[in-house]
Write a structure and sequence with these properties.
Blueprint (H helix, E strand, L loop, with lengths): L3 E4 L3 H14 L2 E7 L6 H5 L2 E6 L10 H11 L3 E3 L9 H9 L3 E2 L4 H8 L1 H10 L17 H7 L3 E5 L8 E4 L5 H16 L4 E5 L5 E9 L5 E3 L3 E2 L3 E2 L2 E2 L1 E4 L6 H18 L3 E10 L2 E8 L6 H8 L3 H9 L8 H4 L5 E8 L1 E2 L5 E2 L2 E2 L2 E3 L6 E5 L6 E2 L6 E9 L2 H14 L1 E3 L5 H9 L1 H5 L6 H5 L14
Parallel strand pairs: 1-2, 1-4, 2-3, 4-5
Antiparallel strand pairs: 6-7, 6-8, 9-10, 9-11, 9-15, 12-13, 14-17, 15-16, 17-24, 18-19, 20-23, 21-25, 22-24
This protein binds adenosine-5'-diphosphate.
Length: 456
């Protein structure tokens, strides 16, 4: 096992890694930018190293600064968290070349799956259903191909992420102009202009399968997470099990995810994302890292995914088989609490947390790096806390969510907590029958519809 892990990240996920390290008897090294001097992960780690100024490019994305910090502190492994360098195959390779274990998939697997279009090719090879679309990055005239797929279609950036870089095309006349615009946008946002086209599913749910694969060829798949409640293609609420998935479909999705992992030589934890519509599921992409919403699966399966991921990286065999991984022990929901202003188009709302009361009691887990008096810097993601609520079944979980959201009191900044309460209380959400357009269709965030979302 490792003796010391450097965490190449910040915020709640850095705290999460440090907690796992402490429980496993591993020393932890935090890195931080000038803007994060007051962050909780620094105080919690055994050691902390400043790696540069506030902008991520000059700190959390500076590979050399991170590798130097690992060397100087005598770390033997690097945990990338999510975002930043977590899916950067070159960084994973650089870690290996410099003698550090990268706690994540091997660079070859990330390369095979990192691009959405490459991931789809692997899925096809593994006999996993994909959303119909153009095969690869578009370089030639695809007018006829798209006509066959059938409008409306979605242009996607191969290197895209975070719900960005997608464009809907409803008629052939718009295709060329939209392709050019999408490629330019992708180049500017992701440094890579390649795009491809997919059939637009009109009423999908987003359902994903957590997998874990050791270095000895064993792969398991957990029960699904349903991340259908989204705003602008970004997840807001995640729950497990999904109210829309039957045991048969669940098993099929798990088998598909395992086939895909085996075909790509995947190792470590990861997520296979699908869209689900009219009883059928379609692969969209692999996230080759531990995701924000991993605690939902930790609760439902009763496993510690962070510990598992570290053990896999150290060469351990999976400690359980598929039957154990697939167990559903309770219902769980995660609420992403962001420092954003719901009354001002969800603009990030950094600033000082004047006072903070966190919820507690049975079935309430809070993962956060913030505290009373902490000033949220303006440079990074607006996620400030995750509430993970568990109970025996969906109805009791929803009641507990409302109770916990009511207990959460953040003063000094605006947050999305009130919006979560509106989502949970909504009859359509309660019924469980909705798609990715839930927020727009219900007019939940439309003030004219009487949404009282400003008040937590
Ligand atoms: P990103 O990596 O940017 O998050 P994804 O490919 O994971 O992008 O898709 C994010 C979300 O966009 C999905 O959860 C879904 O809501 C929507 N989406 C993606 N592909 C399609 C599609 N073909 N049809 C309809 N919605 C889609």
């Amino acid at each position: 096992m490792f003796e010391k892990i450097l965490i190449a990240n910040r915020s709640e996920i850095a705290v999460r890694v440090i907690r796992a390290c402490r429980e496993m008897g591993i020393k932890s090294v935090a890195v931080y930018s000038d803007a994060d001097r007051e962050s909780r992960h620094i105080a919690m780690a055994d050691q902390a190293v400043c790696i540069g100024p506030a902008p991520s490019k000059l700190s959390y994305l500076d590979q050399e600064a991170i590798l130097t910090a690992a060397k100087n502190t005598g770390a033997d492994a690097i945990h990338p968290g999510y975002g930043f360098l977590s899916e950067n195959a070159d960084f994973a390779q650089a870690c290996a070349e410099r003698g550090f274990t990268f706690i994540g998939p091997p660079p070859e697997a990330s390369r095979k799956l990192g691009f959405k279009s490459a991931g789809k090719a692997v899925a096809l090879a593994a006999n996993v259903p994909v959303v119909p679309g153009t095969k690869d990055d578009i370089t030639t005239d695809v007018t006829d191909e798209v006509a066959k797929i059938g409008y409306p279609v979605l242009i996607k950036a191969s290197a895209g992420g975070g719900g960005k870089g997608m464009r809907i095309v409803r008629a052939p006349g718009e295709l060329q102009a939209q392709l050019t615009a999408a490629a330019n946008e992708a180049k500017a946002a992701f440094g890579d202009g390649s795009v491809f086209i997919e059939k637009l599913l009109e009423r999908p749910r987003h359902v994903e399968i957590q997998i874990a694969a050791d270095k000895h060829g064993n792969v398991v798949a957990f029960a699904e997470r349903d991340c259908t409640v989204q705003r602008r293609h970004q997840k807001l609420v995640e729950e497990s099990p999904s109210p829309a998935i039957t045991p048969e479909i669940r098993r099929e999705m798990q088998e598909a995810a395992i086939r895909l992992a085996k075909t790509s030589g995947y190792q470590n934890v990861g997520t296979v994302e699908f869209l689900f519509q009219d009883g059928k599921f379609y692969f969209i992409e692999v996230n080759a890292r531990l995701q924000v919403e991993h605690p939902v699966t930790e609760a439902v399966a009763g496993v510690d995914l962070m510990e598992l991921m570290i053990k896999i990286a150290a060469g351990d065999r999976l400690p359980f088989g598929q039957e154990r991984a697939a167990e559903i022990r309770c219902h769980a929901i995660e609420h992403r609490i962001n420092a954003e202003d719901p009354d001002n188009d969800f603009m990030p709302c950094p600033g000082k947390i004047a006072s903070l009361e966190l919820p507690g009691g049975p079935g309430v887990r809070v993962d956060t790096h913030v505290y009373e008096g902490y000033t949220i810097p303006s440079y990074y993601d607006s996620l400030i806390a995750k509430l993970i609520i568990t109970a025996a079944d969906r109805a009791s979980t929803l009641r507990r969510s409302l109770r916990a959201l009511g207990e959460l009191k953040v003063r000094g900044i605006k947050t999305t907590a009130g919006m979560h309460a509106l989502v949970v209380a909504h009859p359509v959400f309660q019924k469980g029958d909705f798609d990715t357009h839930f927020i727009e269709k219900t007019g939940l965030l439309d003030r004219k519809q009487g949404g009282d979302h400003a008040r937590p």
